[in-house]
Request: fold
Amino acid sequence: MSEQPVPAPYDALLLLSFGGPEGPDDVVPFLENVTRGRGIPRERLKEVGQHYFLFGGVSPINAQNRELLDALRKDFAEHGLDLPVYWGNRNWAPYLTDTLREMVRDGHRRIAVLATSAYASYSGCRQYRENLADALATLEAEGLELPQVDKLRHYFNHPGFVRPMVDGVLASLAELPDDVRAGAHIAFTTHSIPTAAADTSGRPEEHTEGGEGGAYVAQHLDVAQVIADAVREETGTAHPWRLVYQSRSGAPHIPWLEPDICDHLETLHTQGVPAVVMAPIGFVSDHMEVKYDLDTEATAKAAELGLPVARSATVGADPRFAAAVRDLLLERAAAERGRSPERCALGALGASHDLCPVGCCPARAPRPAAAGADWSGAPTGV
Ligand SMILES: CC1=C(CCC(=O)O)c2cc3nc(cc4[nH]c(cc5[nH]c(cc1n2)c(C)c5CCC(=O)O)c(CCC(=O)O)c4C)C(CCC(=O)O)=C3C
Ligand SMILES: [Fe+2]
Reply:
């Protein structure tokens, strides 16, 4: 019999995500939440609103998080891990503040947080920590006793995140017509971010200059290499690959990471590449950035070029990902109890830090961020 897993000091897990609209009336208020004070051009907002209206005003992201919640609860129950799982979002109901209030009222004092963003970056890491700080400030103003919240480490290189994506790329290669499969390229995609934000992503010693992309780009390149190697091992073919970007936002004069997936497809086509697998390694589920930017826009671009493409699956609610979350939680719990747990990680970079140090993924305008070394609002002690 295996030993009972020990989640202590944690008494609950919070799944922290982006949130998305659930009907046409939600779209504009959702976009206002996302872009509050961020200087996104009106034109871009109108355009993105259209992406959502094309899908009936419903983002797939909330349904996907509900599935992930189910998968987590099932995995925990099957492995004797007695820990309640809650869900809260940055931009739509259930809102983080409401969920955190419910957790405190339910008596939770020490909360592990899993963000649905696997990599370092302001948007994917610090902004979630700022959201936690804001939520805690609200609860404090309401006179509630604040819990301690700890954000689980980046899991981009955890095998439970990477292996389902290897299977996804293999399945996409199998989908391509026989005569073009061997020559197919893999385009690993992620969300474009401003090069200035990419250069300052990760710990200060990981920051770069001149658009090299800091930890954000290094982490994606590491995952892409691991997947490409695993695919070569499985198929015997070394499919050429490149990391490219999608979902660019912001003003045109500000440099963002490039090339864009659509431009990349055009370049490959010009070079005579016969087929492409688009692998959205930057995303945890097939939400709107995948459904619109890849499955709609980039796929239309490929059709126009006469270039066969297939888009590989994100991890979503894969049971291996749910198991990875359990592993990350138990690993961190053990570390908080003073043990030295084994830390699963593939690739060259090794397991990411538990606690974001000062200067990790800085904001343009500094604001309080919880669950990092620069958080002073946290109660001390276990
Ligand atoms: C790095 C990153 C991730 C991956 C990490 C993570 O998953 O967190 C991500 C995820 C997502 N981004 C999403 C949606 C949007 N992102 C926007 C805007 C922006 N994203 C940015 C970055 C990222 N975004 C940035 C630098 C901006 C510019 C404005 C700003 O600095 O804030 C906008 C505004 C309109 C626009 O400009 O596109 C929308 C609507 C959805 C929900 C999809 C759905 O509804 O299914 C998800 C999961
Ligand atoms: Fe985004």
Observations:
- The CA atoms of residues 101 and 139 lie 7 Å apart.
- The chain has two domains: 12-156+317-336, 159-311.
